[in-house]
Design brief:
The chain is built from 28 helices and 21 strands. Strand 3 and strand 4 (about 105-110) form a beta hairpin. The longest helix has 22 residues, at about 455-480. It is α/β, with parallel strands linked by helices. The protein folds into two domains: about 5-80 and about 115-385, TIM Barrel (Alpha-Beta Barrel), CATH 3.20.20; about 410-440 and about 480-490 and about 535-755, TIM Barrel, CATH 3.20.20.210. It has an eight-stranded parallel beta sheet. Strands 17-18-19-20-21 form a five-stranded parallel beta sheet. Strands 3-4 form a two-stranded antiparallel sheet. Bound molecules: glutamine (GLN) and zinc ion. Glutamine binds near residues 602, 645, 732 and 733. Pfam families: Meth_synt_1 (PF08267), Meth_synt_2 (PF01717). Its cofactor is Zn(2+). Keywords: Amino-acid biosynthesis, Coiled coil, Metal-binding, Methionine biosynthesis, Methyltransferase, Repeat, Transferase, Zinc.
Length: about 750
């Protein structure tokens, strides 16, 4: 009989309990003991829900206070000395690595963060050093297994695999990954031995790195590691789990190794079925078949899934999710405002458990086609295709008739920038921010009140305008050169846009973990996209009316809106991107008409959906993604300055696309990645203006003037002074106001000193 499994479950909780818990611990409002007790309750609830839905392979250790990559660092003692030297207990060392630490004369930055493959989840980047004593250190994985066992759930602990851990780590440029293989293998073996001692039956080792382009060295290292790990006959059965793509580079090697099971993704892994077809699968292994999409929120198409299962049914199968359910919201039950007519097409994490259960039932039923669950599911799948509510023929036509010239501005950059400089008249090294300003509990409360109808639109407008007025004053006091309106009206840079675009559905509680305690609430792209009305212009022109300095209008770009939403699956992404691009174009032109001279179109998430395989990058993504950005602004006057912004930017491999975006100014999140992208831009003759982030806003730490000067001087050395802007990294809204003001003041003061020196 086929069994069912989940790779991982959302850990934040139905009501984002984890966020509140961890934040109160960090604010010293609750003790470690209370944190652990309440977290235990949360974990227990998640295990029970899965058990009640008949899931047979339930994970433990998929929970984390902050990030599972960080958990793994603690587990194998990959803790950089700067954190060890703080002399904190294990939990506080953990949070120091996650968030940085500043107290008395101690001042340590947080580890870098990066996006987890092609998701919007961020992991903390391990820093490996040769003199680290990599060995078994932590006990969370054991502890959680026992916690679950105590309430009668025999779980499979999960663990990020050694090759994935290694390849995502930062090592010094003189070293090669090979040098770390033995160290890591030994530490993992220690972990496995201990799990064995505890009587654990299954262990899920996750190696998503296997779905990326592998080098010979990677394959060699993989074999070295796992030959060693699987050498001893142990009671423990290891499931090698992959996700986010297919394992074309290493499939046959996987079959040769002595795994109990192999987990493959049949949603995003386009070649996995082909591989099985061509090379077969092992008779003595179990295939974990990832069918229920862990990344998108649409109901599973049972016909599609069962067809796949039927093709491989001669093997021992377990029906699985395609990846951890971490990337989808918790439950549709919390969506009280979303109309039933939409909800019926959706499945969040809890509903996906039900789908696994039903798929199992149907797969075991020879007459599944007559099973009412199958019939009902297929009915829903079919009528989504026919739903006419959000089909806009005019938009579809506009997209159809787009031509090459519709992506390019009329004048060249050289010509534009001269005019822009005349209009803007800014000092050297102009200072600015990336858009948002700190959002307090109060603002969030007011926005909620407005949404619930507890205050009317007049009152709301007055409140937001008061905030804008205040932030303009603050920025004038700090003496920034280009101001922003602060984004107070926005819950989130994508959700807010979704609210004003037809074709989007907004959820009430559809939170997904983005990093640590921060969640995002991606809107759902349900149909064709069309702007309802101008929605940023009033706020932004009000802000401009309060200052003589130029005010930078702030928009979210089409690629970021697309990448941070749950996309429909019945239309190519390319077409969705153009639809959004055209809607944003209308907003850009309205801002320009309202007298806004600088418009920033954030493409924070450009890199995020780069296909896993490099050879697909251009054709399957970048070629249209860049055009969707350009369609937003090709119509503006040469005097209007277009900025764009990008997060976590590694440019080396997409430099020609960055150039072709043709933005007059690009601001980039840079503080955490040692400014190396500036070298890349310079080496590639990037000729437009650049604003690298000069400090990391993710940490409450306030950099001093001298620290700023060092960074800024470094930047000047690398780039033409006349093309540089000075700004912090993005996301100021997450900081407390006092922290932001202090840091920005230091930033501006240091620029002023430097201006005198140059
Ligand atoms: N304008 C946004 C901000 O400053 C950009 C956020 C981002 O890059 N993620 O918050
Ligand atoms: Zn950013």
């Amino acid at each position: 009989m086929v069994k069912i499994s989940t790779i991982g479950f959302p850990r934040i909780g139905e009501k984002r309990e984890l966020k509140k818990l961890v934040e109160s611990y960090l604010k010293n409002e609750i003790s470690q003991n209370e944190l652990e007790l309440k977290a235990k309750k949360l974990k227990e609830r998640h295990w029970k829900i899965q058990k009640n839905n008949g899931i047979e392979f339930i994970s433990s250790n998929d929970f984390s206070y902050y990030d599972t990559m960080l958990d793994t660092m603690i587990l194998i003692n990959a803790i950089p000395t700067q954190y060890k030297e703080l002399g904190l207990n294990e939990l506080d060392t953990y949070f120091a690595m996650a968030k940085g630490y500043q107290s008395g004369n101690k001042d340590v930055k947080a580890l870098a963060m990066k996006k987890w493959f092609n998701t919007n989840y961020h992991y903390l980047v391990p820093e490996l050093k040769k003199d680290m004593e990599i060995k078994l250190n932590g006990n969370k994985i054991f502890y959680e297994y026992l916690e679950a066992k105590k309430i009668g759930v025999d779980t499979k602990p999960v663990l990020i695999g050694p090759l994935t851990f290694l390849k995502l780590s930062k090592i010094s440029s003189e070293e090669s990954y090979d040098e770390y293989v033995q160290m890591l293998t030994s530490a993992y073996i220690e972990v496995i031995d201990k799990l064995n001692e505890l009587g654990v039956e299954y262990l899920q080792i996750e190696e998503p790195i296997l779905v990326t382009d592998l080098t010979e060295e990677d394959i060699k290292n993989f074999k070295l590691i796992y030959n060693e790990i699987l050498k001893d006959e142990s009671k423990l059965k290891i499931i090698l789990q992959t996700y986010f793509g297919d394992v074309r580079d290493i499939y046959r090697e996987l079959l040769d190794l002595n795994f109990y099971g192999i987990g493959l993704d049949f949603v995003e892994g386009e070649k996995n079925l082909e591989l099985i077809d061509k090379y077969g699968f092992s008779e003595n292994k179990t295939l974990f078949v990832g069918l229920v999409n862990g990344k998108n929120i649409w109901k599973n198409d049972y016909k599609k899934s069962i067809d796949i299962l039927n093709k491989i049914k001669k093997y021992t199968l377990v029906i699985n999710t395609s990846c951890s359910l971490l990337h989808v919201p918790y439950t549709l039950k919390s969506e009280t405002k979303l109309a039933k007519k939409y909800k019926r097409y959706l499945a969040f994490a809890e509903e996906k458990l039900k789908e696994l259960e039903e798929l199992k039932e149907l797969f075991c039923d020879e007459n599944y086609k007559e099973n009412s669950k199958f019939i009902q599911n297929q009915g829903i799948i079919k009528d989504k295709k026919e739903l006419a509510e959000f089909q806009f023929e005019d938009v579809r036509n506009e997209v159809k008739v787009l031509k090459e010239e519709d992506f390019n501005r009329k004048e060249k950059f050289e010509e534009r920038i001269i005019k822009q400089k005349e209009v803007l008249n800014l000092p050297k090294l102009p200072t600015t921010t990336i858009g948002s300003f700190p959002q307090t509990v109060e603002i969030r409360k007011i926005r909620r009140k407005y949404k619930n109808g507890d205050i009317n639109s007049k009152e709301y407008e007055m409140y937001i305008k008061e905030k804008i007025k205040n932030v303009i004053q603050i920025q004038e006091e700090i003496d920034l050169d280009v101001l922003v309106h602060g984004e107070f009206e926005r819950t989130d840079m994508v959700e807010y846009f979704g609210e004003y675009l037809e074709g989007f559905l907004i959820t009430e509680n559809g939170w997904v973990q983005s990093y640590g305690t921060r969640g995002v609430k991606p809107p759902i792209i349900f149909g064709d996209i069309k702007r309802k009305k101008a929605f940023t212009v009033d706020w932004i022109s009000y802000a401009q009316s309060l200052t003589k300095k130029p005010l930078k209008g702030m928009l979210t770009g089409p690629i970021t809106i697309l990448n941070w939403s749950f996309p429909r699956e019945d239309l190519p992404l390319e077409e969705i991107a153009y639809q959004i691009g055209l809607a944003i174009q209308e907003e850009v032109l309205d801002l320009e008409r309202a007298g806004i001279k600088i418009i920033q179109i954030d493409e924070a998430a450009l890199r995020e959906k780069l296909p896993i395989r490099k050879k697909d990058w251009k054709e399957k993504y970048l070629d249209w993604a860049i055009k969707a950005f350009k369609v937003t602004n090709f119509k503006v006057d040469l005097k209007t300055q277009i900025h764009t912004h990008m997060c976590y930017s590694e440019f080396e491999d997409i430099i020609s696309e960055i150039k072709s975006m043709d933005a007059d100014v690009i601001t980039i999140e840079a503080a955490k990645s040692d400014l190396s992208m500036l070298d890349v831009l310079a080496e590639n003759n990037y000729d437009k203006e650049i604003g690298p982030g000069v400090y990391d806003i993710h940490s409450p730490r306030v950099p001093g003037i001298d620290e700023f000067k060092i960074v800024i001087k470094k930047i000047i050395e690398k780039n033409d002074l006349n093309k540089l802007w000075i700004n912090p990294d993005c996301g100021l809204k997450t900081r407390a106001e006092s922290e932001a003001i202090k840091s920005l003041k230091n930033m501006v003061a240091s620029v002023k000193e430097i201006r005198k020196e140059i």
